[in-house]
Structures are given as C-alpha cells and as structure tokens.
Amino acid sequence: MNFERYKEVLAIPGVPLLLFVGLIARFPHAAAGVMLTLHVAQTLGMDWASAGLAGAIFTIGIAIGSPWRGRSIDMKGLRKALIPSIISEVTVWSIAPHVSFQWLLLLVFVGGVFALPVFSVMRQALSIMARGHKRRSAYALDAIVTEIVFMTGPGVAALVATMISSVVGLTAIGIASSLAGVVLMIANPPMRSGDGTFPEDDTADQGAFNEVTASTTMGGAATASADVSDEVAAVTGTIPVQRPLSPRQRRLQKMRHRVRRQVGSKVTSQFGWVTPAVLGLLVISAAAGLLFAGSDVDIVAVSGAANQSSQLWIVFVFWSGASLIGGLIYGAQSRRINPVWLLLAMAAFTIPALMADNVWQLGLLLILPGLVCAPLLSSASEKLADIVDEERRGEAMGWYGSAMTAGSAIGAPGAGIFIDTLGPGHGFMAVGVAGVILALVAIFAGKARRRRLAS
C-alpha cells in the first residue's frame, strides 16, 4: 500500500482540475433523483408508486442515451458532443416542474437521454491522462469524489424541496447541469492520446488479449470446426463425397458468402470491441447498480418503519463514508483485485443489513458493503479501460454506465416487491442474494472459458 500514488496522480497536469469539474458536474444529477421523487409525491400530490415511476423513466432514458452519448464523443469530440446536453438540460428541467404528470414523464425521459455524460467523460479522460498503476489511483480518486457528491447531494435536494420548493430545485438542477457542461467544454479534457501532451496508450497487453479473443470470432470458430472435421476424417478413414452443385446452387452459395462477408465486416467494425471479457464487466456493472438501487429503497423503508426518516442522513454518512475510505485504500494498492470477487463480497456483506431495526444499526451494518463499493467501481472501470481501445472507449464507458443504470431500474422495484411482501429489510436480502448468484455465475463462466481456451 503506497499513498504516494495519489500524489503522483495529482501531479499530472489537468487531473486536479478534472476531478473538481467532475464533482461540480455530478452534483446536480445526484440531487435530481430525490428532487424528482419529492416533486411528484408532494408538489403534484401523487402516490409513491408514481414517484418511483418518474424516477424509473428518467433512469431508462439515461440507460438508452449513455452509449449514444459516448459514441458521439468518440466520433465528434467532446465539445461538439456536449452541445445537445447543455441545451437539453436547461430546457427540460426548466419546463418539467410546470407541467402535468403525464408530460413530466415524457420530459424526464428526454432529459435522461440527453443527460450530461459525466461518467463517460471522466473515466475516458482519466484513462488517457493516467497510465499503468496511476490509472487505478486515478479511478479511486474519481470514486471518492463520487461518494462525496452522494453524501451531500440527496440531503441538499431534500432540504431545498421541503424548505423552498421542488419547482425551484428542479429548475436549479437544469441550470447547474448546463453550466457544468459549459465548464467541461472549457476544460476540454483529453479523449485521445493525441490530445495535448499525453503519451500513446499502453497497449502492451492488448496484443495478447486480441490473440486470445480472436479464437472466439466467427472465423476462429469456423477454423476450429474445420480442424475437428479433418481430425474425425483422419481417425475414421472416411473420405468426404462432394456432389457437383447446380448453377442455381452455386449462385445461392456465392450470394450467401457475399452477405456473410458484408454483414460480418459491418458487425466487426461496429461491435468488434465487445468481447466475452467486456460482456462480463457489463454484467458486473448491472449487478452493482442492482445492489445500489435496492439498498437505497430499503434504507428509506427501514428508516420510515422506525419513524426515523429525518435521520436518514446518518445511514448515508456511514455507507458513503465507508466507500470513500475503501476507495482511498484500494487506490493505494500495488495490484488490481478482480471486480467479480469484489462484487461477491459486496453482495454477501449486504445481506446482514436485513437485521437492522433503526438507522444506527443499519449504518453500522452497511459499513462492510460500503468499504467494497468504491473499489468495485474502480476495478471494473480500470479493467474496461485496459481491454478496450481508446477509439471505442467512450462508447464502452457509455454501455458500462447503461448497464449499471439498467441494474438500478431492476433493483429498486425488485427490492420494493420484497419489502411490500415480507417487510422492511428484506430488500437487502433480495438484492444481496441476487448479487451473489450473478457473481458466482460470472466466476464459473470465466473458469469454463479459460479451460476452453487452454484446451
């Protein structure tokens, strides 16, 4: 463990400014969820199910928009890609507080699709500015900044909504998000190795990775199939008999080959970066989102059942504070921990929160899963940055964010069902068990794939 790593990262030109800009840019959206929920439930006088629906629609919009926004950064550059978000943020959130619930759903969906892609920008820029062991520390610092935001954002949103107005709060979120986008445009962090004075990406391990994953492509499968056929023929002594093809069959065969080549090249060019390892990371991201969202819902349920809703901040201080400490420790490590093991630990540590009866017990029981939270996000992001070429890294980070958002969209209502059926606290059990199962499936699938590649 070497905390000097953080000094090295902060000494990189532009990194301290980028982390500060990331803190500012994340704050409005950290407050948006609570503000939107309180606006629907209190200002519009709707039930909590409707409030949850509005949050889910916003989440779905983000999940759909994140890969597209990341791809736009890859193709057009940061400044051009941010223009739609800057316009949309101030427009949508200035109109949304003044419309009916039905129109609000449409507007928050649009707001989610065009949301400022802070996650993709921060992770891609840090992957360019920090290399090798510095990248791990840089991602840990970004995770720490995120925890600071989520320790303060929801609380500030609740205070503004209850003491001033949710209409004022939502409008302020839109203005602040647009201003954050402008600040990002001015800062213009690098999205490519050629931007500024940053070195070329370290691809020493990429070649070996590509050689391994090449065997999983269509061509590799076809070659393996041909080899197997040859071996069978050699062992059995059979001689294949080929009947001559008719002119019509030859034309159809040529057409099929042409279509396969065209479709195959197009798919490879668009999704060649999607490998089994990348898919595994997306599953881990979705499972993490499921754990976060499900835990959020049950924290509110447990504190409400204990008549301690006003002390809800205590739980988030314990939970996010533990994550901040965990991220700080992880970023000082000399080696990366496999994110799937971190997911397994976090899911298993979440289950005992079922036993909490008040906010203090819940805060203490969430220290262990909190300690693993930031390291999990840092490890998964670092691994994704290592195995995806920087030309497609923005899109990959967008899909990573969408996977987490999709998991959140499942985790919140899923935990709610168990809470309504079995009582407060059982949401922790539900998402914890689901996370353990997903982690074990990922572990066994990875081992099976490595055995196949070795053979």
What tags apply to this protein structure?
80% helix; mainly alpha; Growth Hormone, Chain: A; 455 residues; transmembrane helix; single chain
Q: Can you describe what's shown?
A:
One of its GO terms (molecular function) is transmembrane transporter activity. InterPro entries: MFS (IPR011701), MFS_trans_sf (IPR036259). Pfam families: MFS_1. This is MFS family permease. The chain crosses the membrane at residues 9-28, 48-65, 101-119, 139-161, 167-187, 271-292, 312-332, 339-356, 362-378, 399-419, 425-445. The chain is mainly α and 455 residues long. The chain has two domains: 1-193, MFS general substrate transporter like domains (Growth Hormone, Chain: A, Up-down Bundle); 273-455, MFS general substrate transporter like domains (Growth Hormone, Chain: A, Up-down Bundle). Helices cover 80% and strands 0% of the residues. It contains 18 helices and no strands. It has helices at 4-10, 15-43, 48-76, 78-95, 101-113, 118-129, 133-163, 166-187, 206-214, 218-236, 247-271, 276-305, 312-331, 339-350, 359-365, 367-387, 393-422, 426-454. Helix 3 packs parallel to helix 5 and helix 12 (276-305) packs antiparallel against helix 18 (426-454). The longest helix is centred in the N-terminal third of the chain and has 31 residues, at 133-163. It is globular and about 75 Å long.
